[in-house]
Specification:
The chain is α+β, with helices and mostly antiparallel strands and 174 residues long. It contains four helices and eight strands; from the N terminus they run E-E-H-H-E-E-E-H-E-H-E-E. Bound molecules: coenzyme A.
Amino acid sequence: MIESDKIKLRPIEAQDNAKVFSYRRDSVTNKYQGFVPKALHEVDAFIAKNPTDFNQPESWFQLVIIKKESNEIIGDIGIHFIGDDGFQCELGCTLSKKHQGKGFATDAMKITIDYLFTSLNKHRITASVDPKNTDSIRLLERLGFRNEAHFKESLFINGEWVDDVIYGLLKSEW
Ligand SMILES: CC(C)(COP(=O)(O)OP(=O)(O)OC[C@H]1O[C@@H](n2cnc3c(N)ncnc32)[C@H](O)[C@@H]1OP(=O)(O)O)[C@@H](O)C(=O)NCCC(=O)NCCS
């Protein structure tokens, strides 16, 4: 179990579907996200494809963020285990609108990064973000990620070509 004083993380489960749908369906808050479900069955499919085992090469593993005080799901973190050598990961984080602006994402990312560098000995962690997604950029820079690259109109999301900025963080920088 990965946890801090305020939150804990655990693998997403089938019964989390309604709660995850309630904040992931918010197309305004999630306008820079690729996955914005319109129906509950899309969340069921999203959960069903979560791997059984953590840290599998070329997999995305989804964790939910649980606020300890109320035991409610307030968001999720996706970990992309990149490549076959097992030394690099990509992270994505989503919080319900109601729980933003209180430090929960910073806390959740911090304990995830700690776990990846310390327990799993990862070498480098990246994040891919739309340059217009200022909340996400502030989150990454607060955690010490560096802006490494800016790709022009390299992703086709929600019907339009958008820029992609890559942030990076090395174990030696953490
Ligand atoms: C990206 C995202 C998770 C960031 O959430 P967030 O609420 O800004 O981040 P945190 O939970 O860490 O909160 C930090 C903010 O709370 C404030 N804050 C208030 N109380 C705090 C506390 N006790 N501790 C820390 N920060 C606190 C901080 O000052 C900061 O505000 P600022 O950014 O205006 O300086 C959120 O915007 C989101 O879910 N967006 C939609 C999904 C998305 O686009 N994800 C990115 C895909 S990679």
